[in-house]
Amino acid sequence: MQYPENIVRMIVWEVTRSCNLNCVHCRAASHLGPYPGELSTEKCLRLIDDITSVSQPVIILTGGEPLLRPDIFEIAAYGTRKGLRMVMATNGTLVDKAIVRKMIESGIRRVSISIDGKDAQSHDVFRGEAGAFDGAMRGIEAMKSVGMEFQINTTITTANLHQIKDIHDLALKIGAAAHHIFLLVPTGRGKDLAEQAITAADYEETLLWFYQESLTCEIQLKATCAPHYFRIMHQNKTKGAQPAKKAGWNSENGFVWKSSKRFLTGILSLASRRFFVAIFCMIESFLPPSAAAPGNR
Ligand code: SF4
User: Fold this and answer.
1) Is any atom of ligand 1 closer than 6 Å to the C-beta of 22?
2) In this structure, what CATH number is given to the domain that contains residue 78?
3) Is residue 268 part of a domain?
4) Could you tell me if residue 278 is inside a domain?
5) Which domain covers residue 200, as residue numbers?
6) How many domains does the chain fold into?
């Protein structure tokens, strides 16, 4: 099927708001739940049908913690059968070899795990649970042993800014395929961390370092929630300079965030916007009136 140019190319889908961690910056302000009004398996599959009727985006299954959904591999496998590149964002603490095998069987192509500190002490404070760092590392070891590609995601605040190079070195050392940094968006529980957003000067310095690193680094580097990264890239580009490994493109166009309930955000072409207004209305029609609640992550 031919799709219009600039149609949505990536959907970040909060399949649940439930989570076993309590991260201080959590956009979804997640707890263990359960949260009423989340989409049933059947409705998730129909949503994939509707998405594939107009586009073939990458789908990031996220949450909350997506592995808390018992039907997560059914959803992933269905998306795979429909020709979508299915990937997953998890905190890693529930990942073992058996889970990785299910990921592979359902066609999940890459998994991101968030690491926000260079060691257990700093990561666990951020993640709100003792053992979160060791759990994430065990999950990474399981992925490596079964052969699943993984990347590291890091949210930067004033609390871990001084560790960012160590975290990056850790990502390289453990064999990540990519390191994506996220600049704190003070929403959800992150609202209480607004004072931990780094200064404009630190943004500039960090993003410049990240860009320069991307020119030689052997893994993909990408900055998210940092649109000024593109300005820094353009301002500092020297003739012929290219990232050693090309990263994705979701900071420009065709990016949608689908929360565990009804909220959609993103950067969309007009055609995509029309389509997602239609999808949005469909999701709303699935929901009981009581289900109107924020799904920020
Ligand atoms: S940020 Fe992710 S891992 Fe942390 S509480 Fe929120 S959903 Fe869970």
Assistant:
1) yes
2) 3.20.20.70
3) no
4) no
5) 10-262
6) 1
β 178-183/264-267 pair status: unpaired
Position in ligand 1 atom list of the atom nearest CA 188: 6
279 lies in some domain: no
Q: Which of 62, 65, 157 for a ligand 1 pocket mutation test, highest count of atoms within 8 Å of Cβ?
A: 65
**Predicted TM-score (pTM) of this structure:** 0.83
Structure tokens at 10: 């990536």
| Amino acid, single-letter form, for residue 123 | H
CA of 237 relative to ligand 1 center, distance in Å: 35
Give the residue from 196, 21, 200 showing the smallest Cα distance to 114: 21
Q: What is the full per-residue pLDDT of the chain (297 aa) written as tens digits?
A: 666 666 788 999 999 999 999 888 888 888 898 899 999 999 999 999 999 998 999 999 998 999 999 999 999 999 999 999 999 999 999 999 999 999 999 999 999 999 999 999 999 998 989 999 999 999 999 999 999 999 999 999 999 999 999 999 999 999 999 999 998 877 788 777 778 889 999 999 999 999 999 999 999 999 987 888 889 988 888 767 777 776 644 444 555 666 665 555 554 444 455 555 445 444 444 443 333 332 333
In a domain, 204, yes or no: yes
Q: Give 219-275 as a DSSP string.
A: SEEEEES-THHHHHHHHHPPTT---SS----TTTSSEEEE-SSS-EEEE--HHHHHH
